[in-house]
Hints:
Helix content: 40-55%
Mean pLDDT: 86
Order of helices and strands: EHEEHHE
Oligomer: single chain
Number of helices: 3
Radius of gyration: 12 Å
Amino acid sequence: MESLQIPNWVVKELESASIGSHGNCPRFLRGFDSYSKEFQSFWLNNYDICNAWLNPLTRKFVEVI
């Protein structure tokens, strides 16, 4: 099985990001507009990869490149 790949610069943003969630709602970025357009685009287009990296149970399947 091929691993998911996430750029190192995205990981650095995620490590300091303010992540929110409530109920059965998926994770969301607090203050979304305060992040760079590049990061916003990656989050929106690769949410599954970001979410997999944020989850300690699935992080091992995500390769930081």
